[in-house]
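Whiteboard transcription, Tuesday session. T.W. wrote the structure tokens on the left side:
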């Protein structure tokens, strides 16, 4: 339909000069016939019967003919006009826009009227030829021509539209439908490599889309297979960790008894044994907790931030710890909206990591916890004066089992902390980490999700 409309529009633009050209040809033909009739009269020295004169004028389709020869204007043939001449047109040097305007005027004006036309005689048979003729026959001929143009345009439009439809269907519609079918088939079983699309389109843009889709599906299938293997491996690790935790718990009970032995060698080795078993138990428990991925959505409530920080310091035995100084830069009246239990876990993890980093130096240091708010969020910062994170830990900071900064660590703490902060719609980020220390920042948005439980 669009093709038909556009072709018809183009035909309209072509029709205007065409109908003007048809009118000029029509008038030129009348001028030539009138000139021939006048020459026939001149050949008989102007002596013809009225019947022959009427026949010559009727054959030329004019009322009268005036021929100018040798600067003399002479009425050669004439017949009654019957009405006053309504218009005069000069075809000797017409402007194209004038021809279009005059042609439209003939089609628009419905009444018949005589009009005069000037032209150049053919074969230099005079200086000027002038005819007077009726408008009705010319208008009828123009209408007939317009109808033929309309019919021809409609036929061209239908044929063009049909050919274009067949071409577009073959080159675009069917290949696009094939791509859609491939996408639907692939969505049913993305792990099946046989369902990955094979690019076949000959259209450059569509072929590029098929190539991109093939690459995407190939990468996605590989990722899904890898994730499936990792899931199976994770399930096996979880089972092993569960059994290993039970075994280590029993070993821990025996190690506690050994720690009270009177043997000096046993007394010296026992604390290291207990510490190693405790770390192994902690690793198993963290692995099991991370593997469950059952963190509930945060239950938001308003509470004071500073008391929560003081509670963490007391629980982790940081206050009064030899060589460790803790600074709290949080306003007493600062109220935030968050899940207190989850935020406790996040801050405890960051503060515990900071303490362990300072302990590793053996020189003491400072942990600073700051907090505040802006128009859009609450912010918290936990910094220390430790040695900073190693490059490998910074590259995989929030990746489980890869972001640990100390030997024997699992890297689960920061991964779980980042996940809990994301559950609040916020973000946990590393602000700096160099030889002067490490600083983390937490941003919690003030705009709550309407679906969350916003306790007053």
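and on the right, the sequence the group agreed on:
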């Amino acid at each position: 339909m669009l093709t038909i409309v556009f072709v018809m529009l183009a035909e309209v633009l072509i029709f205007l000069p065409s109908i003007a050209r048809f009118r000029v040809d029509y008038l030129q033909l009348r001028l030539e016939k009138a000139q021939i009739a006048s020459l026939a009269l001149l050949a008989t020295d102007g002596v013809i019967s009225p019947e022959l004169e009427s026949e010559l004028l009727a054959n030329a389709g004019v009322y009268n003919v005036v021929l100018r020869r040798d600067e003399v204007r002479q009425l050669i043939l004439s017949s009654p006009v019957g009405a006053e001449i309504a218009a005069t047109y000069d075809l000797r040097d017409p402007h194209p826009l004038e021809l279009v305007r005059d042609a439209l005027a003939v089609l628009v004006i419905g009444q018949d009227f005589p009009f005069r036309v000037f032209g150049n005689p053919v074969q230099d048979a005079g200086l000027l030829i002038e005819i007077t003729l009726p408008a009705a026959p010319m208008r009828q001929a123009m209408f007939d021509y317009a109808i033929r143009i309309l019919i021809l345009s409609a036929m061209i439009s239908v044929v063009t539209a049909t050919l274009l439809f067949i071409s577009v269907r073959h080159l675009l519609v069917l290949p696009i439908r094939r791509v859609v079918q491939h996408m639907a088939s692939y969505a049913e079983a993305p792990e099946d490599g046989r369902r990955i699309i094979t690019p076949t389109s000959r259209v450059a843009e569509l072929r590029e889309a098929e190539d991109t889709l093939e690459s995407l599906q190939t990468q996605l299938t590989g990722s899904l297979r890898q994730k499936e293997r990792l899931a199976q491996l994770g399930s096996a690790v979880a089972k092993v960790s569960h059994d290993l935790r039970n075994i280590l718990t029993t070993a821990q009970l025996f190690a506690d008894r050994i720690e009270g032995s009177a043997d000096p060698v046993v007394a010296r080795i026992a604390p290291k044994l207990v510490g190693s078993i405790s770390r192994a138990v902690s690793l198993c428990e963290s692995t099991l907790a991370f593997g469950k991925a059952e963190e509930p959505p945060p239950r938001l409530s308003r509470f004071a931030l500073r008391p929560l920080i003081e509670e963490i310091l007391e629980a982790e035995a940081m206050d009064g710890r030899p060589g460790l100084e803790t600074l709290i830069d949080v306003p007493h009246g600062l109220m935030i909206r968050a899940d207190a239990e989850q935020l406790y876990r996040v801050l405890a993890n960051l503060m515990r990591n900071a303490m362990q980093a300072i302990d590793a130096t053996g020189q003491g240091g400072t942990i600073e916890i700051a907090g505040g708010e802006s128009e859009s969020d609450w912010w918290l910062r936990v910094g220390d004066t430790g040695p900073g994170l190693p490059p490998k830990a910074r590259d995989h900071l929030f990746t489980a089992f890869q972001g640990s900064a100390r030997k024997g660590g699992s890297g689960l703490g920061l991964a779980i902390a980042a996940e809990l902060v994301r559950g609040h719609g916020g973000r946990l980020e590393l602000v700096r980490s160099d030889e002067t220390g490490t600083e983390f920042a937490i941003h919690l948005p003030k705009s709550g999700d309407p679906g969350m439980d916003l306790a007053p």
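Someone added at the bottom: Residues 204-259 form the longest helix (56 residues).
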